[in-house]
Amino acid sequence: MTDSLKHRGPDAEGYFFDGVAGLGHRRLSIIDLSARANQPMTSGNGRYVIIYNGEVYNFREIGARLKTNTRKNEEIQFKTSSDTEIILEAFIAYGPDFVNQLNGMFALAIYDKQQQELYIFRDRLGIKPVYYYWDEVNFAFCSELKAFKCVDAIPREVNKDAIRDFLHLGYIPTPGSIYRNIYKMTPGSYLKVSKSGMEQTRYWNIQNKISSKVVEDKEQALVKLSDLIISSVQYQLKSDVPFGVFLSGGIDSSLVTAQAVGLSSVKVNTFSIGFEENSHNESEYAKAIANYLGTDHHEFIVSYKDAIQLIDPVLEAYDEPFSDSSAIPTMLVSKLAKQYVTVTLSGEGGDELFFGYGAYKWARWLDNPVLKMGRKPISWAFARMPNRYKRVSRLLDYHDPKKIKSHIFSQEQYMFTEWELEDLLNPDYKGSSEVKEYTRSASLLRIYDEPLDSKSVHVRERNLTAMESQALFDLQYYLPDDLLTKVDRASMRYSLETRVPYLDHRVVEFALNLSPELKYRNGISKYILKKILFQYIPKELFNRPKQGFAIPLNIWLRNELKYLIDDYLSESTIRHYNIVDYAAVKKLVKDFFDGRDYLYNRIWLLVVLHIWFRKNQP
Fold first, then answer.
1. pLDDT of 471-522, one tens digit each?
2. How buried is residue 590: exposed, middle or buried, by Cβ count under 10 Å (0-12/13-18/19+)?
3. Confidence (pLDDT) at 436
4. 3-state class of 272 per DSSP?
5. CA 90/CA 108 separation, integer angstroms
6. CA distances (Å), 413 to each of 16, 169, 338, 478, 548, in order?
7. Contacts of residue 524, Cβ cutoff 8 Å, sequence gap at least 6
8. Res 550 pLDDT > 80
């Protein structure tokens, strides 16, 4: 199992087994590069064993508290300078609640040899992955699904209900996976596995961090937010190996870069990627910002040949259907960065926390009472307009107001509406209503609304705006199950650790309770973040529309990648797997090549789905 994850940790390997529990670890050495910091690591008293993926940035403060709070005759003598040893000793001192002290990204397992109990903790925002299998008798867990393929005793039956989620959202939301009996662990929770079974406890719930009042004072907010981001970046620069920053030239990564430059004692490496197709090339903007900040900048210009070569590695890296095509440039820039550094900082989370996506404007628009009343005839009218307006028609044509957030996300991303899936999916894949309640994305909200234990109970008095609600949806689903998954697999494939300063839980909790007027003001998205950024970099360098980290997929599918459509959406392939109706697929492909460009992501979803099935369920 650990050999299959060698890319995540090429520097060392280790194993523990006592006849009840087995633990395996592959190490990517970041803090304390010595062999004594390798894992599995046993506690000083010999009772506990830990394996751990990620970084806890405040480990030195926790270590200092441990020494202060320990009686002299029991004084802790740390044998390493690693965060792993301190985390383990903190668990021993404080029990499972120690996790609330951790600031970082982590997936960690601690086994109590005496009680034969296993604890697994996942970080608050789901930055680091944990998959687990549980059949009421046997339990297994890992960082990537591919490790389960090494265990013949673990069945891998396709979760047919997940197919619908994938085609609607582009990813499979937590807790589901492509396999019926394998689950993604809920962010901000921990599992306890023992002879008596498995228990799940929620120690951090984003819903419960929403207070009854918001911060409205702009100057107060600017100072506090700026200080928090600086603190986060300073924490995340801690490393015993070289580091750099992914610099796209956008707001989020530029601010992280500017602060890293100000805090670092060495010249900062920055990395960007561009495309030969000029419409998707932002590398010149990144270069201009790098020049202004004086970083050691590296860029890589991508062609369709580079993208084609990565299609198989990308699908292999994600282990289940995953349609975010920006995984290709993310993987390419990770490969570039690994030539120079072992740790990078990235700007994930800025859009969700500060209203950076167009979906939030759609949410605000669709929440208009007048529009709600007339949306059906307006949708009908837009459907008869040129292509660019047909997307608006789809946005307006939702069937269930309770699912409006997943609908807005889906249509902002050009994916299938729920009513389109009714016509597209064959009966076996439409899902039973009983299973849908647990696995379908719109229903998953109840998992986050209802605390998993009594400690999490909190009454929220504040009514969220439509923009806030849409952003919260993204923080709960899109961020961990798409964006963070994308970055983790793409970077770790090249043994590169990527850290995300905006997702320091202190930044998240503060941003959640900023007035919406400080995030979106007078048509300006990320208003307060831009105010902070322009203290470091001239505003003139950002006078351009937001593009995002995407590839020109609509162009490539018509030309260089057309062979994927010809093969994976052929009649023989579609009928062999019998997931979707061939007549509906044939019409979709015809409409796309007849000029309906907005259908490109629907085409890509079906291509990715059938590539996965051919590789995994031939």
1. 999 999 999 999 999 999 999 999 999 999 999 999 999 999 999 999 999 9
2. exposed
3. 38
4. strand
5. 13
6. 45, 8, 30, 11, 12
7. 530
8. no
**In this structure, is residue 142 part of a structural domain?**
yes
Distance CA 209, CA 514 (A): 12
Radius of gyration of the chain (CA): 24
Last residue of a domain, one of 185, 203, 221: 203
* Rounded Cα distance, 549 and 408, in Å: 20
Q: Which of 181, 203, 225 finishes a domain?
A: 203
Residue 453, domain member (yes or no):
no
- CATH number of the CATH domain containing 341: 3.40.50.620
Domain containing 40 equals: 3-203
Q: What mean pLDDT is reported for the chain?
A: 89
Domain shared by 522 and 588, yes or no: no
Checking if the pLDDT of 236 tops 90, the result is: yes
The residues with which 131 forms a beta bridge, in sequence order, are 142, 184
465 assigned to some structural domain: no
CA triple 600-603-608, angle to 5 deg:
125
Strand 104-112 relative to strand 524-525: parallel, antiparallel, unpaired?
unpaired
In this prediction, residue 279 has a pLDDT band, given cuts at 50, 70 and 90, of: low
Pairing of strands 520-521, 524-525: antiparallel
One-letter amino acid identity for 78?
Answer: F
Specify whether 487 is located in the same domain as 561: no
Q: How confident is the model at residue 439 (pLDDT cuts 50, 70, 90)?
A: very low
Q: Which two tokens stand for residue 313?
A: 């590695």
Q: Which residue has the tokens 């937001």?
A: 546
Q: Which of 279, 320, 271, 378 is nearest to 172 (CA)?
A: 320
pTM beyond 0.85: yes
- pLDDT at residue 592 in the model: 96
Pick the residue with more confidence: 584 or 71? 584
Q: Which residue has the higher pLDDT, 381 or 168?
A: 168
Supply the DSSP symbol for 87: H
C-beta atoms surrounding 76 within 10 Å: 16
Place of tokens 């970099």: 537
Q: Is residue 303 scored above 50 in pLDDT?
A: yes
What's the token pair of residue 55?
Answer: 């970084």
Query: Where residue 311 falls among pLDDT bands split at 50, 70, 90?
Result: confident
pLDDT of 432 higher than 60: no
Contacting residues for 446 by C-beta, under 8 A, at least 6 apart: none
The CA-atom distances, in angstroms, between 434 and each of 90, 171, 183, 443 are: 42, 21, 18, 11
Q: How confident is the model at residue 317 (pLDDT cuts 50, 70, 90)?
A: very high
Q: Indicate the length of the chain as a whole number.
A: 618
User: 453 pLDDT band (50/70/90 cuts)?
Assistant: very low
Run of H or E residues at 25: strand 22-27
DSSP H/E element including 476: none
What's the number of domains the chain is made of? 3
Decide if 109 contacts 141 (C-beta within 8 A): yes
* Distance from C-alpha of 87 to C-alpha of 104, rounded to nearest angstrom: 11
Is residue 113 a part of any domain in this protein?
yes
User: 165 and 105, same structural domain?
Assistant: yes
CA–CA gap between residue 577 and residue 600 (Å, rounded): 22
Reference 559, options 308, 324, 387, 312; nearest CA is 308
